[in-house]
Design a protein that fits this description.
By secondary structure, the chain is α+β, with helices and mostly antiparallel strands. It has a single domain (3-198), classed as Maf protein (Alpha-Beta Complex). It has helices at 12-21, 48-60, 98-108, 175-181, 183-198, and strands at residues 3-7, 27-31, 66-77, 83-84, 118-128, 134-145, 161-163, 168-169. Strands 1, 2, 3, 4, 5, 6, 7 and 8 form an 8-stranded mixed β-sheet that branches. Strand 3 (66-77) and strand 4 (83-84) form a beta hairpin. Helix 1 (12-21) crosses helix 5 (183-198) and helix 4 crosses helix 5. The longest helix has 16 residues, at 183-198. The two termini are 13 Å apart.
Length: 199
């Protein structure tokens, strides 16, 4: 019998990514909505890991015999002392579009040379197993902030985040290219290895 994995997100892009990377494991990935769970805990943590665990713990109480996953991710720009960091989703306000957020970050880096525009996407995934045990995994992808947005494939900060090896933004990559190197992909692969060890 396959195990149920409940992923704490309403973001269908993330759900698709989780399903692709856990493909082949005997699990059925369900969203909170599919499980009839509504949960928006306040993210009071000071790290991506802490916030991911807060989200996972909030729905672990509502499900039984399921593996609960939650992620917290964001963009760290070195020149801006790691901003927007854990506040990536709330940068300039929760209802602000990413077009506006991306334009603001490019504006804040005006005149900054490429070597100082280094940045990374970070993703922490928290996992709570049915027996109550819990762990987190982390994935990153290194890149730099470009001078203009490009690409239609990604979401969030993807259009301004460029990866040298590909010579393009993560929004210009195919989903398969992006999953192969993305912060969430890396964190999910680490999670998959951890789950395989425990089964």
């Amino acid at each position: 019998m396959s195990k149920t994995v409940v992923f704490a997100t309403g973001n269908q892009n993330k759900v698709r990514e989780v399903r692709q990377i856990l493909d082949g494991l005997d699990v059925e990935v369900r969203t909170m909505k599919e499980m009839g769970i509504a949960s928006e805990p306040e993210e009071t943590g000071e790290t991506f890991e802490e916030n991911a665990m807060i989200k996972a713990a909030a729905i672990a109480d509502a499900v039984q015999d399921a593996i609960v996953l939650a992620d917290d991710s964001g963009l760290e720009i070195d020149y801006l002392n790691g901003e927007p960091g854990i506040y990536s989703a709330r940068y300039l306000g929760e209802d602000t579009s990413y077009e506006v957020k991306n334009a603001k970050l490019i504006e804040r880096l005006e005149g900054v040379p490429k070597e100082e525009r280094t940045a990374r996407f970070v993703c922490a995934i928290a996992c709570i197993l049915p027996d109550g045990s819990r762990f987190t995994t982390r994935g990153t992808i290194e890149g730099y902030i470009g001078w203009e947005p490009a690409g239609e494939n990604g979401f969030g900060y993807d259009p301004i985040f460029y990866v040298d090896e590909y010579g393009c933004s993560t929004a210009q990559m195919t989903p398969e290219q992006k999953n192969a190197i993305s912060h969430r992909g890396n964190a999910l692969r680490a999670l998959r290895l951890e789950l395989e060890k425990r089964w």
